[in-house]
Design a protein that fits this description.
single chain; 203 residues; alpha+beta; five-stranded antiparallel beta sheet; two-stranded antiparallel ribbon; 6 helices; elongated; disordered C terminus
Length: 203
């Protein structure tokens, strides 16, 4: 509201502008920001923001902190290298090459080191994002260690089943000395395989 008085004339002009729509837009923006903040903090997937210029973390959520074992104050303003997250330098090299070439990362699997020193398997995705005019990255980090262990167990089980089936077929298809020789060859094959069903490694 703007008031322009005219004392001599005994009146004043009053100017008013309806700001209902602007106020509604501001309220909607505040509500949207509140929702996004809630989703960010409650997400079961680790989410982080980092600057492209120096790779320093500028914001992270609780799931991200839980995955790497650090407190928020230990992470903000520091880089993955400073936190000693990278386990394999070749993973880091491939990761940076993919990011430079594609401008983003999707489902990159690598190993990370938690604060305790424990190694976990993670999957990372990154997208470019401008934050208040600054070039940044928003990323997700998912701990896939259990999935990897499950896949390894399933692979072992598959190997063991295939091995057992080969032995059974030998008893059906052969007998006598031939059966013994073929069975021994199959067993030796399993024993000398680096990831064989017996878990032995050749020397």
């Amino acid at each position: 509201v703007l008031i322009s008085p005219f004392p001599k004339e005994g009146y004043a002009n009053i100017y008013a502008r309806d700001i209902t729509e602007r106020r509604q837009a501001e309220d909607a923006l505040k509500e949207s920001t509140k929702r996004l903040t809630t989703i960010f903090q409650m997400s079961p997937v680790g989410i982080f923001f980092s600057r492209r210029s120096d790779a320093k973390f500028i914001e992270v959520n609780e799931a991200f902190l839980e995955a790497i074992g650090y407190a928020r104050g230990e992470v903000i303003g520091r880089t993955p290298r400073e936190l000693n997250l990278w386990v394999d330098s070749q993973d880091h090299h491939r990761f940076m090459e993919d990011l430079a070439r594609e401008g983003r990362i999707h489902g990159f699997e690598l190993r990370h080191r938690r604060k305790s020193g424990y190694i976990i398997d993670v999957q990372i995705s990154l997208l470019p994002l401008d934050v208040e005019g600054e070039s940044c990255l928003i990323g997700t980090l998912t701990d896939i260690s259990e999935r990897k262990r499950t896949a390894e167990r399933e692979r072992k089980e598959h190997e063991e089943t295939a091995f057992a089936n080969r032995i059974l077929r030998l008893f059906v298809e052969h007998d006598g000395d031939e059966l013994f020789d073929r069975a021994l060859a199959v067993i030796r094959e399993g024993m000398v395989s680096e990831y064989g069903v017996f878990g032995y490694i050749t020397e």
